[in-house]
């Protein structure tokens, strides 16, 4: 699609072309290289939350046991008669706390890091685009900032934030009201029982919140996928332009092929005067043969053509007094059985030998 000029005003008509065609694989690859991929932060967040929740729930009993042992050990140290608070004692206590905490936190933190990386890779694949980390003045441009503020993505992010606050508040309030009457019994429980009860209620609240966030993450991914596909849509002219870039301009390729055929024909016509005989169909095919008994083991096809080219071969043959022999079966067999520069097929030796014998006799060579 071309450009329209009105009073020196240039308008790209392609901007108004309706984009209704599905993106090609090349369009998708180019978008991926430019960093245009479907990546939902909500999916990453919810996967990290799920992994962290499962890890904490699984490791909590071990953590309680670990901290109980640590507490007993620390009380044992403090209860000794010769207990003195000095640098070495504080260092020992710090090491014990650090080791106990690491046994619980290391698997959780490791699982969260792996989950976050895996979530990104699953959504986008292994794509690294350093252009996204380059400094861009548009990022601090207030006009561009206002555009982003009122963009569709900004509205979607605002809705997601409101939904997340509502989900957390709704689930927490619902669980609180459900367990409200049971909270009064906490005063009758010992420390271990009350802690276990509060922990169980907290896990239930977190689990339900995560389930709602999973639904929100799925909806967010579907929305981002829809928007991404919409951005990648192409017009018919876009597809034509891409085809021209990848396959080349069909008209230019046609001209190149035509030029190549013309050059090939010119070379063929230059060596045609060396032919001993031209065998024809009589009008549809023409094959020129050359035979030098001292240098060739068999006659060689030095020119051949069909229809218009066959007519040109006959004209050149007449100009150089080359004998033209009409033998339709032999002409067709030679045309289809050998390329220019090839020796004739072995099964045609006898037929060609008879023709050459006739030509040599006609020229008085035998």
Written description of the protein model:
With 366 residues, the chain is of the alpha+beta class. The chain has two domains: 19-27 and 36-129 and 136-242, no CATH class; 255-362, secretion proteins EscU (name from scop), CATH 3.40.1690.10. It is 64% helix and 8% strand. It contains twelve helices and six strands. Strands 5-4-3-6 form a four-stranded mixed β-sheet, sandwiched between helices. It has a two-stranded antiparallel sheet with strand order 1-2. The radius of gyration is 43 Å and the shape is elongated.
Defining traits:
2 domains; two-stranded antiparallel sheet; 366 residues; alpha+beta; elongated; name from scop
Layout of secondary structure:
Layout: E1 3-6, E2 9-12, H1 25-33, H2 41-78, H3 87-124, H4 142-149, H5 152-178, H6 180-183, H7 191-232, H8 236-247, H9 250-271, E3 277-280, E4 285-290, E5 300-306, H10 308-319, E6 323-326, H11 328-337, H12 349-362
Parallel strand pairs: 3-6
Antiparallel strand pairs: 1-2, 3-4, 4-5
Helix pairs in contact: 2-3, 2-7, 5-7
| Count of discrete domains | 2
Q: State the shape.
A: elongated
Mean pLDDT: 79
Strand content: 5-15%
Uncertain spans, ≥5 residues at pLDDT below 50? Answer: none
Instruction: Describe the sheet with the most strands.
Output: 4 strands, mixed
Number of extended strands: 6
SSE order:
EEHHHHHHHHHEEEHEHH
**Helical amount among residues, as a percent range?**
55-70%
Radius of gyration: 43 Å
In which order are the strands of the major sheet placed?
Answer: 5-4-3-6
How large is the count of helical segments?
12
N-end to C-end Cα span: 69 Å
Structural class: alpha+beta
């Amino acid at each position: 699609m071309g450009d329209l000029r009105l009073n020196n005003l240039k308008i790209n008509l392609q901007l108004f072309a309706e984009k209704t065609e599905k993106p090609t694989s090349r369009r998708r690859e180019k978008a991926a290289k430019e960093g245009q991929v479907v990546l939902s932060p909500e999916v990453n967040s919810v996967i990290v939350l799920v992994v962290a929740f499962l890890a904490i729930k699984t490791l909590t009993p071990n953590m309680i046991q670990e901290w109980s042992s640590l507490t007993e050990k620390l009380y044992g140290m403090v209860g000794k008669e010769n207990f003195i608070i000095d640098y070495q004692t504080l260092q020992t206590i710090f090491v014990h706390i650090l080791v106990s905490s690491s046994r619980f936190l290391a698997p959780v933190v490791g699982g969260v890091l792996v989950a976050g990386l895996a979530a990104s890779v699953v959504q986008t694949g292994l794509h690294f685009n350093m252009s996204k980390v380059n400094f861009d003045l548009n990022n601090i441009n207030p006009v561009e900032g206002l555009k982003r503020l009122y963009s569709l993505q900004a509205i979607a992010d605002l809705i997601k934030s409101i939904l997340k606050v509502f989900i957390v508040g709704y689930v927490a309030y619902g669980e609180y009201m459900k367990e409200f009457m049971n909270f009064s019994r906490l005063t009758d429980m010992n420390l271990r029982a009350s802690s276990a009860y509060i922990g169980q209620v907290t896990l239930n609240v977190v689990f339900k919140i995560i389930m709602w966030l999973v639904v929100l993450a799925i909806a967010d991914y579907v929305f981002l996928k829809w928007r991404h596909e919409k951005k990648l849509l192409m017009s018919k002219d876009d597809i034509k332009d891409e085809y021209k870039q990848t396959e080349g301009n069909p008209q230019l390729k046609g001209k190149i092929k035509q030029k190549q055929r013309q050059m090939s024909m010119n070379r063929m016509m230059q060596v045609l005067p060396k032919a001993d005989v031209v065998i024809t169909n009589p009008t549809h095919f023409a094959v020129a043969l050359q035979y030098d008994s001292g240098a060739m083991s068999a006659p060689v096809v030095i020119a051949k053509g069909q229809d218009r080219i066959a007519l040109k071969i006959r004209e050149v043959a007449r100009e150089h007094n080359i004998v033209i022999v009409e033998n339709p079966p032999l002409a067709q067999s030679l045309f289809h059985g050998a390329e220019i520069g090839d020796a004739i097929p072995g099964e045609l030796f006898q037929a060609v030998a008879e023709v050459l014998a006739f030509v040599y006799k006609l020229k008085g060579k035998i």
